[in-house]
Design brief:
Elements: E1 3-10, H1 13-23, E2 32-33, E3 40-49, H2 55-63, E4 69-79, E5 87-91, H3 96-108, E6 121-126, E7 141-150, E8 152-161, E9 164-174
Antiparallel strand pairs: 1-3, 1-8, 2-6, 4-5, 4-7, 5-6, 8-9
Length: 176
């Protein structure tokens, strides 16, 4: 069986609740909000594998080399392209810790870091680009102050359905 997996930073229950509360303040938009447990910061983009057995041990080995660090998000906007957006995301400044961690994780797992430049972001909602033209707002640039102490990394598996994508944590490893 083939699995679509990726490596991410999980989001705490506390920040999940803060995000869900923020979402309730938005006007009615035709978007699919990510469920709290699906919120994450992707470090290594998705790839396909048939063998999951050794990935947890490799993740633990990599996590043991890093200490906790902080990330913050300062803006919620439409993205990633402001002319034809397809999601609502929270963005923030990336620390040197994240760049080093993602480079070493990609190398350890034999994956590419991706072709797009890395931007620390949380996808909050997805929508079809064509739906954007009927939104009651055409610009979203809300200042926020969401902070998170990152204490672990996870391997997540994507599960596609008619309702959208759901993610399952298949391995979690704490930082030292």
């Amino acid at each position: 069986m083939t699995h679509r997996i990726f490596i991410a930073l999980p989001i705490s229950d506390r920040l999940q609740k803060e995000i869900i509360q923020w979402e309730s303040s938005l006007p009615d938009l035709s978007v699919r909000y990510l469920k709290g447990r699906n919120l994450h910061v992707t470090l290594v983009p998705p790839w396909y594998t048939e063998n999951l057995s050794e990935l947890g041990a490799l993740l633990k080995d990599q996590a043991s080399k890093y200490g906790r660090f902080n990330i913050s998000f300062d803006t919620v906007s439409f993205g990633p392209n402001t002319y034809q957006p397809r999601l609502i995301w929270a963005t923030g400044k990336a620390s040197a810790d994240i760049f080093d961690l993602r480079r070493k994780l990609a190398e350890a797992f034999g994956q590419s870091e991706g072709i797009k430049p890395f931007r620390t972001h949380l996808t909050l909602a997805r929508f079809k680009p064509e739906a954007f033209s009927v939104f009651p707002v055409s610009r979203l640039d809300e200042k926020i102050d969401w902070k998170e102490e990152v204490d672990s990394i996870v391997i997540m598996e994507s599960h596609q359905s008619e309702e959208g994508t759901d993610y399952e944590i298949i391995a979690k490893a704490p930082f030292k």
